[in-house]
Specification:
This protein has about 140 residues and is of the alpha+beta class. The protein is about 25% helix and about 30% strand. The strands form two sheets. It has a four-stranded antiparallel sheet, sandwiched between helices. Strands 5-4-6-7 form a four-stranded antiparallel sheet, with helices on one face. Pfam families: Lectin_C (PF00059). It comes from Staurois parvus. InterPro entries: C-type_lectin-like, C-type_lectin-like/link_sf, C-type_lectin_CS, CLec_Tetranectin-domain, CTDL_fold.
């Protein structure tokens, strides 16, 4: 069973890219936040969730190369449970944040925008969006 998982993750990495202890795989078909998250989970991963500036920069570069320089993708961060309290998909508060604050004061959507998106156009900065919007996304898989 473990061998099959390792082989599957390896084949995913062959299609995507590796960074640190993660494999990233872009999905160009736009989906709403919940569908995108479910799709990643069905493949054995989660929505990509950058934990450092370096990870965010790497993800942004990968998005620009795999999906296009003007792409915007869902990332695994939301404040659905408690407005203004941004958490990852495990429900843990995030310590790294890269909200767009130059042209807009993100997150600015209040209770209407509870899901985070990374914008390649904005050099990897984050925006809060309505979770029902449809965006491409990147799944991340742990390399074990």
């Amino acid at each position: 069973m473990v061998l099959c998982y390792l082989l599957y993750v390896s084949s995913v990495c062959l299609k995507g890219t590796k960074t640190l202890n993660k494999c990233l795989l872009s999905v160009s078909e736009p989906k709403n936040y919940h569908q995108a998250s479910d799709d990643c989970i069905a493949q054995g991963g989660i929505l990509s969730t950058p934990e450092t500036r370096d990870e965010n920069d790497f993800l942004n570069d990968y998005v620009r190369k795999s999906l296009g320089i003007s792409s915007e993708i869902w990332i695994g961060i939301n404040d659905m449970a408690n407005e203004g309290s941004w958490v990852d998909l495990t429900g843990s508060r995030i310590s790294f944040k890269l909200w767009e604050t130059g042209t807009t004061l993100e997150p600015d959507g209040g209770k209407q925008e509870n899901c985070a998106a990374l914008s390649a156009t904005a050099n990897g900065k984050w925006f809060d969006k309505n979770c029902k919007e449809e965006l491409p996304f990147v799944c991340q898989f742990a390399i074990v």
